[in-house]
Amino acid sequence: MTSAHQHSGSLRELAARFRADTLRIHAQAPETRVASSLSAVEIYTCLFYGGLLRHNPANPRDPARDRLIVSKGHGSISLYPILADRGFFSPEELARVCRPGTFLGGIPDPIIPGYETVNGSLGHGPGVGTGMAIALQRQGSDRRVVVVVGDGELHEGAVWEALLFAAQQKLNNLILIVDDNGRCMMDYTSHVVDLAPLPDKLRAFGWSVEEVNGHDVDALCATLRRSMECSFPGPRAVITHTIKGKGAPALEDDPLCHVRTLTPGEVEELTGGAP
């Protein structure tokens, strides 16, 4: 069981490496959703390298693990190189994403070591995470459940049902991380269903709420740790303000970047062509 800790300089370097790896995966598997994967790189880096998430690559279903529910599954291709680096599977698999015979698909599922749930249909992660948190609480376990959602995913009604229920059950072992990148599939979230003021809405539902720059690894890791360890007698939410397509200017400036594909040439220019 490990919850590896790195100093912030290393975390920044790791995040940069994983962002480049994500772009290279997209170049070979253009059906992957790269923009929404790029916004969450620092979130996953902090969880797996900031001493926040107890995990066991040698036994991904170790009962002593914390549970990570990646509800925005299509936007988690950036987790693939992290899981490979931590030893959940061979890094050689990263060159086979979306190819016949691999377990690394464009939308992940539990066949991938390190994933807990099916992640294709949005809006179900908070409900599943709430169920897991109740079970762990009743078992007397101190393990936590971390659920990563996208802000566009918060348009789903099932999410809010789960948030209400989690607060009523006082699940202080449940942490919701919102990848608040401001865009859903077809436009800015504010143009589709405006979530503002999101912190006030979550607090009104009975959650503690913190906000942070989701690309500042120092602040992000500190905020996540503070939220996880605080004495609030209920579930906790951390809203991470991120940029969809972070690191790829053509995506950062495009309201339709969720469905945009980068060419191998664009990726090579962004990554310098290095493996």
Q: Could you walk me through the main structural features you see in this protein, from its secondary elements to its overall organization?
A:
By secondary structure, the protein is α/β, with parallel strands linked by helices. The protein contains 11 helices and 5 strands; from the N terminus they run H-H-H-E-H-H-E-H-E-H-H-E-H-E-H-H. The protein has helices spanning 8-28, 34-38, 41-49, 79-86, 125-138, 157-168, 189-192, 198-204, 217-229, 249-252, 264-271, and strands at 67-70, 145-150, 174-180, 208-213, 236-241. Helix 1 crosses helix 3 and helix 5 runs parallel beside helix 6 (157-168). The chain starts with 7 loop residues before the first helix and ends with a helix.
Bulk shape: globular
How far apart the termini lie comes to 30 Å
Average pLDDT, all residues: 94
* Rg: 17 Å
Summarize the structure.
This protein has helices at residues 8-28, 34-38, 41-49, 79-86, 125-138, 157-168, 189-192, 198-204, 217-229, 249-252, 264-271, and strands spanning 67-70, 145-150, 174-180, 208-213, 236-241.
Short key terms for the protein model shown above:
alpha/beta; five-stranded parallel sheet; 275 residues; Rossmann fold; globular
Give a topology summary:
Blueprint: H1 8-28, H2 34-38, H3 41-49, E1 67-70, H4 79-86, H5 125-138, E2 145-150, H6 157-168, E3 174-180, H7 189-192, H8 198-204, E4 208-213, H9 217-229, E5 236-241, H10 249-252, H11 264-271
Parallel strand pairs: 1-2, 2-3, 3-5, 4-5
